[in-house]
Design brief:
Largest sheet: 5 strands, mixed, barrel
Helix content: under 10%
Oligomer: single chain
CATH topology: OB fold (Dihydrolipoamide Acetyltransferase, E2P)
Shape: globular
Number of helices: 1
Strand content: 35-45%
Number of strands: 8
CATH architecture: Beta Barrel
Number of domains: 1
Length: 109
């Protein structure tokens, strides 16, 4: 599926896109996953998104505002908020697509 269509839609979709980081990372402990996560906002050609990365599975991506990144993961919609992209890492159980974040040529997966 085309990224702009996935962004404008309502169904979860696997996406791969480039974006600019707009906020410093925030760190939190996932209440469902019981794992540490980092989250940061990005601006893409389709609009604003939040990237949420499970850093208990993948290495932390040391982003700062202004960085250009490539993101591959699952886009999900949260009514009243910008879409969220998660699964930006490998799946240790091999039941889900593997995602990633690429920063300055370095792959974080």
């Amino acid at each position: 599926m085309d990224f702009a269509a996935a962004y404008a839609g309502y169904a979860p979709a696997w996406v791969d896109f480039s974006a600019m980081v707009c906020s410093p990372p925030r760190f939190f402990y996932g209440s469902r996953t019981h794992c540490m996560h980092e989250a940061f906002d990005v601006q893409s050609t389709a609009g604003e998104l939040e990237v949420v990365d499970n850093i208990s599975i993948a290495p932390r991506c040391p982003v700062v505002p202004g960085d250009r990144i490539e993101v591959c993961g699952e886009l999900v919609h949260d009514p009243g908020r910008p879409p969220v992209v998660h699964w930006t890492h490998h799946d240790p159980a091999a039941r889900h697509h593997n995602g990633f974040i690429r920063l300055h040529g370095q792959l974080y997966a």
